[in-house]
């Protein structure tokens, strides 16, 4: 592979950040595979060479050593120094990658707890666009899915319903009936109509009350 092709291939690997580990790892392993440098990721480190080592032993060892050395160089080149400073001096590319993955798994667990806590504690106060509120809850559920926790849609609908103020309780009663199971879009439609109905009702009440206020002002 020419220098130009190597540069073009490596440019396709994103810099590792706190949120893209899975994408980054897939890209790195793909690049190493395309460059035939993933041998050290697939095979264990061979035994050290001795005077009795055969030519085949030397060939296997040299291939693994080259794959390991260049693989480490490529991987470290796509990792910020702030991450590298926290890593021990590991000279085995597979162990290096595994150690890095363990750290991000722990980070994912912390993020998972934070997102789940936020989702179950959300409450609609009655102000703002209810459609956007519901979509925000489903956006958090999407984050959980990315962290390997997938909540069924009917569970999410229940979470939305129990997060609403008492004036929406009729929807929870209706949804709990055996024949009523709503999708996300149906739930948003029902809630939006309820919200619109409340707004129109308040507007009519204000229209009805206004003439009485005018009469009082005229008498005075």
From TrEMBL:
<protein>
    <submittedName>
        <fullName>Uncharacterized protein LOC120281015</fullName>
    </submittedName>
</protein>
<dbReference type="Pfam" id="PF14223">
    <property type="entry name" value="Retrotran_gag_2"/>
</dbReference>
């Amino acid at each position: 592979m020419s220098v130009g092709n190597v540069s073009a291939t490596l440019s396709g690997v994103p810099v590792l950040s706190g949120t893209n580990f899975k994408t980054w790892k897939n890209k790195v392993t793909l690049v190493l595979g395309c460059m035939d440098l993933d041998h050290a990721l697939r095979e264990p480190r061979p035994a050290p060479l001795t005077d009795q080592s055969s030519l085949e032993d030397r060939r296997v060892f040299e291939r693994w050593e080259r794959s390991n050395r260049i693989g480490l160089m490529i991987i470290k080149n796509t990792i910020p120094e702030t991450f590298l400073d926290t890593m021990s001096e590991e000279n085995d590319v597979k162990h290096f990658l595994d150690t890095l993955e363990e750290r991000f798994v722990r980070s994912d667990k912390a993020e998972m707890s934070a997102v789940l806590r936020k989702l179950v504690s959300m409450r609609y106060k009655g102000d703002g666009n209810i459609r956007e509120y519901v979509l925000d809850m489903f956006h958090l559920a999407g984050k959980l899915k990315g962290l390997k926790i997938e909540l069924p849609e009917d569970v999410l609908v229940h979470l939305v319903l129990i997060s609403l103020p008492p004036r929406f309780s009729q929807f929870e009663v209706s949804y709990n009936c055996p024949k009523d199971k709503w999708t996300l879009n149906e739930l948003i439609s029902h809630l939006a109509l309820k919200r619109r109905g409340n707004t129109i009702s308040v507007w009519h009440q204000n229209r009805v009350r206004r003439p009485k206020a005018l009469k009082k002002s005229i008498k005075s």
